[in-house]
Amino acid sequence: MSGMLTIGQLADYAGVTIKAIRHYHERGLLAEPDRDSSGYRRYTAKDAVDLVKIRTLAHAGVPLARIKDLLDADPDTLTAAIAEIDHTLQDRIAQLQRTRDQLAQLRGDDRLFVSPEVADYLEDLRELGVSERAIHLERDGWILMQTASPEDSSLWIAEKRELMTDPEFRALYLEHDAAYDWSPDDPRLPALAARTRNWFTNHHSRTETRPVHNPTIARLAAQSQPGASSPAWDRLAQLMKS
């Protein structure tokens, strides 16, 4: 590399863009040479060495604001600064890992949104073979309920988990889930309504007699969720009342 270099030649030599060199000029990292008689800026071998140093430090993650101090630093200062920058990078890596862990939970787990008891209950439903549609519906309902009335929600979930230990209730739950996709004229609906009515007649609920602290939220949960009803479920509700 002999003589003087144009900015393009310097960029090619150091493996950076012309835009990067101009940015380093603006930040005061690389001295900007005067123009020659033909109007071009000409760079020396020293500029090339400085640029390689800047590029190496920048690629290693050293913030541009620190690079200027480190270009001509003695070895001890450079070692200490690199150790400090490395520590900052470790902190950032740990933060990014925490973010990734949260994302993994969001992808496959409901525990970020609902209490551990509700999350365990939803897991029980999955193991029973309940549809994902019904599980999402339940989860969203619990999110609304927990927000409206945490005390009531914790009582309800305890009762719901207890109910799920009853084989007859589990069978009814699974059949209601399956009935979502039935025709409203399906002959199985009146029988399912009758069995459900009989079950509730024989099993007094401890919590359903308590007033809901926020009836608006309860109605919202029942009415406004996508998939909260279907023609067969509407028919089932009518049959349950008759």
SSE blueprint:
Blueprint: H1 7-14, H2 18-26, H3 45-59, H4 64-71, H5 75-108, H6 116-128, H7 132-148, H8 150-163, H9 167-179, H10 188-202, H11 215-223, H12 231-241
Helix pairs in contact: 3-4, 6-7, 7-8, 7-11, 9-10, 10-12
Concise overview:
With 242 residues, this protein is mainly alpha-helical.
Structure commentary:
Helices cover 69% and strands 0% of the residues. The termini are far apart. The protein contains twelve helices and no strands. It has helices spanning 7-14, 18-26, 45-59, 64-71, 75-108, 116-128, 132-148, 150-163, 167-179, 188-202, 215-223, 231-241. By secondary structure, the chain is an all-alpha fold. Helix 9 packs antiparallel against helix 10 and helix 10 (188-202) crosses helix 12.
